[in-house]
TrEMBL record:
Source species taxonomy: Bacteria, Pseudomonadati, Pseudomonadota, Alphaproteobacteria, Rhodobacterales
GO molecular function, one term: DNA-binding transcription factor activity
Keyword field: DNA-binding, Transcription, Transcription regulation
Entry-linked PROSITE patterns: HTH_LYSR
Name under which the protein is recorded: Glycine cleavage system transcriptional activator
Gene coding for it: gcvA_7
Length: 345
């Protein structure tokens, strides 16, 4: 029978301190092994051949084994040296790439692709609060912005809605209901006192997602059989037309709230459409740990949360090989807004 023994381990800094060989020696050996020549390694490293040989011998002393077999002026990798060199080249390549990405992150532009309305009414007015806002390059699209990151030239796309896309991470950002807005001057001149008054007004229509019928239903009245008004390719142009006293637009609360607060537009009536996710932050799955993308995402989510328009009813997802993976659950509301109620109710 083996008696019990009291055994004490003094861990100290074990596992916390790396035991690494001199970096200059590692570089000299890796270059000579990769190039197959001490002379060429000396030229790449801007050292003398004698200095490279000295560094390699220092590495061999550290390792306690030979990495080169020498015969006169010729050198040849040993089996141990060949295996070690292969691992070092992989590590140094990764080290170089990581260093370059960190170095470039401090000066390269950050490209955001989004809709005109999101850029003009939401993103641009807030960019001065982003740490690297002066380096953001904004591009806009009349239709839904492309999420093909192989061709769209973007780091991040503010995607319309939240449909999953293969090879892309989709983070729901904003949800919103819609309500009618009009320029202040038209309210009195057209005597707009109740929802039914809109049936005789010129209505601005949105080609992307026109929802006037839904709003009239929420208001409890029949929509006009032949509604008057032009159709625009997106909600931003429709809203701009309303600002210019051309009629009434059905605007997204999350987008025009600040415009309404400024008095440039006036909200009409209490009825709203059913809220849904209108914008998401999207970026390539391969870059989900990119420092600038993470910082931009955290910032823009905090901006949406600060004004109470953050998306709270969906999941952040990633699509790879045709399968949807849920990365994390977004914050959910205790109560969803009701059809026909003000968003703040």
């Amino acid at each position: 029978m083996i008696p019990y023994a009291n055994i004490t381990f003094n861990l100290g800094n074990w596992g916390l301190t790396r035991k690494l060989p001199p970096f200059a020696a590692v570089r000299a050996f890796e270059a000579a092994a990769r190039l197959g020549s001490i002379k060429e390694a000396s030229e790449e490293l801007c050292l003398t051949a004698s200095a490279v040989s000295h560094q390699i011998r220092a590495l061999e002393e550290y390792l306690g084994t030979s990495v080169f077999r020498r015969s006169g002026n010729r050198v040849e990798l040993t089996l141990t040296g060949r295996a070690y060199a292969g691992k070092l080249t992989t590590l140094l390549d990764a080290f170089e790439e990581s260093t370059r990405s960190v170095k470039e992150a401090g000066r390269r532009p950050f490209r955001v692709h989004c809709t005109p309305g999101f850029a003009a009414r939401w993103l641009v007015p807030r960019l001065n609060r982003l740490a690297f806002g002066d380096r953001v390059r904004v591009s806009v699209s009349n239709g839904a912005p492309s999420t093909d990151f192989t061709s769209n030239g973007a780091d991040v796309v503010i995607q319309w809605a939240d449909a999953p896309v293969l090879g892309v991470v989709t983070e729901p950002l904003m949800q919103s209901a819609r309500y009618p807005v009009v320029s202040p001057s038209l309210i009195q001149s057209k005597e707009l006192r109740e929802p039914g008054d809109l049936c005789r007004m010129t209505l601005m229509h949105d080609e992307t997602m026109d929802a006037w019928d839904e709003w009239f239903e929420a208001a409890g009245i029949d929509p006009p059989a032949f509604p008057r008004g032009p159709t625009f390719p997106n909600c931003e142009l429709a809203t701009t037309a309303a600002e210019q006293e051309q009629g009434v637009a059905l605007a997204y609360d999350a987008v025009v709230r600040s415009t309404v607060e400024s008095g440039a537009l006036v909200r009409l009536f209490d009825a709203v459409t059913m809220p849904f996710v209108i914008y998401s932050v999207s970026y390539p799955s391969s870059r989900k740990n990119d420092q600038m993308i993470r910082e931009f995402s955290d910032w823009i989510h905090s901006e949406a949360k600060a004004v109470g328009v953050e998306a709270r009813t969906d999941l952040i997802c990633e699509v790879a090989s045709g399968r949807v993976s849920l990365l994390r659950t977004a914050t959910r509301p205790e109560n969803k807004p009701k059809l026909g109620a003000r968003p703040e109710d």
